[in-house]
Each structure stands twice: as C-alpha cells, then as structure tokens.
Here is the input.
Amino acid sequence: MNYMNLSNLDRAVRVVAGLLMLGAAWTGIAMGIWKAGLEIFGWVPLVTGLLGWCPIYALLGIRSRKPEP
Here is the structure.
C-alpha cells in the first residue's frame, strides 16, 4: 500500500520550511505571538514532509507524487 502523496521536491520544501519556522521560534528571531505560532505550526510541514503524506492533499484528492505503475 502506497499512501505517500508528496513528491520528493514537495517533501524537501516542507522539511526545510518546517525547520526554518521552528528555528526562528527557538532562536528568538520571532517573538510574542509569532513565536508561539511558529512553534505550533512549524511542526505541520516538518512532519508531513518527513512522512511524505499530507492529509489536506488526501482530502482534496491532490497528489504531487506520480503514481507508481
């Protein structure tokens, strides 16, 4: 069963974005409400990128990964 719906490029972009968001929050670049938001929402692209599966894509029937024959 192949549940992955993200291409390798999509996954890489998500992982980098998640790490940048969390890094900005943890290093003090972002402050206040922005820090809290980045700490919460930075995990979403990181985890979806690592898993290769996005629940929003699944609900909408979107796949950036080409189906395997």
